[in-house]
Amino acid sequence: MRVRLEDVARAAGVSPKTVSRVLNDEANVRGPTREKVLAAMAAMDYRPHLPARSLASNRSFLIATLYDNPSSNYLAEIQAGVLEACDLHHYSMMVRPLQVQSDDFVERVDRLILHHHPDGMVLTPPITDHAGLLQRLRERRVPYACVSPIERDGRIGVFIDEPEAARRIVAHLVALGHRRIAHVIGHPAHGASQWRLSGYRRALDDAGLPRDPGLEVEGDFSFGAGVAAARRLFSLPRGQGPTAVFAANDDMAAGVIWAAGEHGLAVPRDVSVCGFDDTPIARQIWPTLTTIHQPSREMGRIAALQLLDSLRRRGAGAMVQAPFSLQLRESTGPAAA
């Protein structure tokens, strides 16, 4: 027989209303009581009846995660973190791919809201900074949390200090003796592209190295863009090409390593390569990739937790700064003489 909410209440020695409050993640339940109810749920393998739960609380218990990003590795990590937070608080997650540049972008999100009634949304870049969408969400009174937004005032979500992270990885290349360091820039609509470019330039300035526009090549965060950018860089006349390449994410860095092999260049003997994000591909390619560890899974979890906190308590939720770290691996080495 199906375990009922009343059965859990009886086992935990509390009222059915208290069990309901725990299920709905309401804030006005004392810690010990909450733990007792959760323990009873686990022991009895209780599964709430979602339609009844939604009807009783006038909530969908659904979080929508929106994305428009070619980096599948990054997105998988973010989504895993969001799902972890949703599972913890008995929410479901829906994932929706979108195209920010499409004429009906805001209308498509509007239809999603009308059809599925999500309690809130987790927005990933570049969607996280789309002014028209943010205005529509405010009009619809749909709470949202942002991952790595350009504008942070008055918002909740998560970010890291991307300019400093980029400066630090380029400073690592400078310390290895590299003087001609190229940068494969990310998608122009992403705030991350601007921040990582600014960190790259600041590291060159700190080292007293001249900026060479020919060593700054546009990309879009995809493997193919890394290949195309590297082909341009490795085709520069002798003495004008780079001895090191900093790509704005790991997928593009993997493309740079692929193109290096195509051009007969050994990594890191002939050219050093580094990326950003520390997604699984950084450890799956050879040589393994020096990169910035951005805790993408944890960032997805933090963004969702801030959103869920704001749903529980009006005015709650914050913009949280997550830490980063430099991961030194086999793809970088001393500059060739």
List keywords for this structure.
Rossmann fold, four-stranded parallel β-sheet, six-stranded parallel β-sheet, 434 Repressor (Amino-terminal Domain), DNA binding, 337 residues, 45% helix, 13 helices, single chain
Summarize the structure in words:
Helix 1 (5-12) packs across helix 2 (16-23), helix 1 (5-12) crosses helix 3 and helix 8 runs parallel beside helix 9. The chain has helices at 5-12, 16-23, 31-44, 50-57, 72-88, 105-116, 131-140, 162-175, 191-206, 223-234, 250-262, 281-284, 296-312, and strands at residues 62-67, 92-97, 120-123, 144-147, 157-159, 181-185, 216-218, 244-247, 272-274, 291-293, 319-321, 325-327. It has 3 domains: 5-56, 434 Repressor (Amino-terminal Domain) (Orthogonal Bundle); 59-160 and 295-323, Rossmann fold (3-Layer(aba) Sandwich), CATH 3.40.50; 162-294, Rossmann fold. The strands form 3 sheets. A 6-stranded parallel sheet has the order 2-1-3-4-5-11, covered by helices on one side. The protein is of the alpha/beta class.
Q: What is the structure about, briefly put?
A:
The protein has helices at 5-12, 16-23, 31-44, 50-57, 72-88, 105-116, 131-140, 162-175, 191-206, 223-234, 250-262, 281-284, 296-312; strands at 62-67, 92-97, 120-123, 144-147, 157-159, 181-185, 216-218, 244-247, 272-274, 291-293, 319-321, 325-327.
